[in-house]
Write a structure and sequence with these properties.
Length: about 260
């Protein structure tokens, strides 16, 4: 029963491709071999990340090795997307372990991709790549802090989620293979600017929602205090609240002084 109440086991994903993924899951999950467990799928991200670094290092001398990077990104999508679903389907009970390791390894995957591009692009681009890593990591930090405040884990923003992000990486790799690195070098500053703008929008919306939650909780608490006061008040007493933090007093209407 305790595991079923863990909010991290359920994610809110409203991305463009999430409806298609939900239709495919009941077909794919039962066909995954029984020897391939949910924790195996989660830990495979380490293998894919190491191979991304290796293929990226080779792509520094032959950009066609980026096809290998794109293949590893696709494999990481499969194992990362279905690890939790396999766990629920087989009732493995690894909800908290899966939450922790899955998101920790997502960060490892992100770092491997950014470091991989640092192998390929000129040295002058590395500061921009470092900034890009910091911005994307900030999205994750915002999501986890919001989860702590709302008990709701949201993994998509502006109809874009992890699947769209991986698809964009594959498209970028394809463009690099076909047209070289020149356009990516010049376009990095625009990618960073767009990422910062999106992050600011997400943080603004998130703090606004949390503020509203706090205000609703405040109003409920005030209503509860008034209800308690009315329950215990005698017909000749009126309870007066000057503020939420001040003590409650009762006034005897017939004599005009506080009762207690």
């Amino acid at each position: 029963m305790q595991n079923q109440q863990f909010g991290g086991a359920n994610k809110t994903n409203t991305s463009f491709l999430s409806p298609l993924e939900r239709r495919l899951s009941p077909i794919v999950v039962p066909k995954i071999p029984s020897w391939l467990q949910t924790h195996h799928l989660t830990m495979l991200t380490l293998i894919w990340s190491l191979l991304i670094l290796g293929f990226s290092y080779l792509a520094a001398t032959d950009v066609r090795w980026l096809w290998g990077v794109s293949l590893m990104i696709f494999f990481q999508y499969l194992t990362d997307h279905y690890d939790g679903k396999v766990g629920k389907y087989r009732n493995t009970g690894l909800l908290r372990w899966g939450y922790y390791m899955d998101h920790l390894l997502d960060y490892v995957f992100l770092c491997s991709v950014i470091i991989g591009y640092a192998f390929i692009l000129p040295e002058k681009s590395r500061y921009q790549l470092l900034f890009l890593l910091a911005v994307f990591a900030a999205f994750a930090v915002s999501a986890f802090l919001a989860f702590s405040a709302t008990d709701r884990l949201t993994i998509s923003y502006l109809k874009l989620g992890p699947t769209e992000f991986r698809l964009a990486l594959i498209v970028i790799n394809t463009l690099l293979i076909l047209f070289g690195t020149r356009y990516m070098i010049s376009g990095l500053k625009y990618v960073n600017a767009g990422a910062v703008a999106a992050l600011c929008f997400v943080v603004y919306q998130t703090q606004k929602n949390i503020w509203q939650i706090d205000m609703r909780e405040k109003e409920r608490e005030k209503s509860r205090q008034v209800a308690v006061a009315k329950t215990y008040a005698t017909p000749k007493e009126v309870y007066v609240f000057t503020s939420v933090s001040e003590p409650m007093i009762s006034v005897n209407q017939s004599k005009g002084f506080p009762v207690s």
